[in-house]
Amino acid sequence: VQLVESGGGSVQAGGSLTLSCLASGYRSMNCIGWFRQTPGKEREGIAAFYIGSSITYVADSVKDRFNITHDYDKNTLYLQMNSLKPEDTAMYYCAARRKRSWLCNEGNYWGQGTQVTVS
Hints:
Helices cover about 0% and strands about 50% of the residues. It contains no helices and 11 strands. The strands form 2 sheets. Strands 2, 4, 5, 6, 9, 10 and 11 form a 7-stranded mixed sheet that branches. It has a 4-stranded antiparallel sheet with strand order 1-3-8-7, with no helix packed on it.
């Protein structure tokens, strides 16, 4: 499984960004999800896509602003982020997991991450 994130950058508060996670070899996984982490803080699960059922979940903390989608043809997972706040500043990762877990936590495979900075 290989995961490559892109789409991060710097944006002003209130702006929007869409992150992409190009995935390969992931179809046998149970789920693929988005996470974020800032230095000194625990990694936070943001959203997940369950591959077999195509069900999506978004964490309560961001569900009114973030959305997760998946394009089978492009093998890409997206995270659309709207109304961004400075506290959304973090490194964002996608991860895939063999077995089901809430928000696809404790992934088995991880991308390298993409930085989002909101000022």
